Amino acid sequence: MVFVEERKKGKRIQYYLVKTFREKGKVKKKSIFLGTDLDSTQLEKLKEDATIELGEIDFGKVLNKKEIEEFEEIKNKLNKEIESFAPESFYQHFLTEYTYDSNAIEGSSLTLEETNNVLFEEISPKNKPLKHVQEAKNHKKAYDYVMGLEEEKLSQDLICEIQKTVVENTLSEHLKKFEGKLRGVNVRVGLHIAPPYYSVPRKLGSLIKWFNANYKKYNPIVIAAYFHSEFENIHPFVDGNGRTGRLLMNFMLKNAGFPPITIFFKYRQEYYNSLEKARKEKNLKPLIKIMKKSYQDMLKIYSQKTKK
Q: With CB atoms counted within 10 Å of each terminal CB, which end of the chain scores lower, N or C?
């Protein structure tokens, strides 16, 4: 439960955003100081940002014990299958699939085979947009960068560096100034109007604070799902938000011992719907369901390749 609490201090009123939650059978409370003697407009703005930092969800209850055990079983089985491959063999197969799916979700016209040829054969397809070819190359470079990171915590600079790599040499002329920088314009994503550009630094900063304070506290699947859904809602960049967000998801999963994941293109509409559910209802279950299905698909793929 999240609510605003007023505390009188002399003649002044201090405002706190308070979240109550249950941990190990006890009700606990966490609060963030919003300010003193705020008007309704100031209070609403500060409340919105602090809510991201606190998190509106009871993260310890998103997954039950059985669901956590199922993810652990998938993780262990998939890691074992991956270890049976030569590292370069898995790297090429996974990165081709991951780049194809992540870019296809965003509208790339490259096929799976064309993606492999671009990434590992240095062969560009004919009659396909050069932008799509460059996006594939950028995604490989960004993936290598993310998977090579030793950091566990996030920063705005790190996130901007990932986005810069993702969109390098692909933005239209009037947007090039936003390469590796937070957007300075308003954007619309389908039917959803993203938060105004001037609120992006605060909102992204609040989300980063939440992650850095909680990434070891809650289940990594829940952490990755919540961060991803909020990141896509904030939509901090003019382009590359989806690809950057999914790379950040793998950054989090990698640090928690999970194998890298690809959200398969076949789940595109279901994936978009799950992000909408998370945004409107703070319901992470649909997105976590897709993550589980994607991991199960990967397990089938690599189990079959082992048997051959």
A: C
Residue-wise pLDDT tens digits, 138-196: 999 999 999 999 999 999 999 999 999 999 999 999 999 999 999 999 998 877 889 99
Please give the structure tokens belonging to residue 195: 């938060």
Domain enclosing residue 208, as ranges: 61-307
Report the distance separating Cα 136 and Cα 116, nearest Å.
9
Contact 142, 160 (CB under 8 A): no
- Whether residue 196 contacts residue 39, with contact meaning beta carbons closer than 8 Å, is answered with no
99 plus 71 within the same structural domain? yes
**Type of residue at 186:** N
Question: Is the domain of 255 the same as that of 132?
Answer: yes
* Shared domain check, 72 and 125: yes
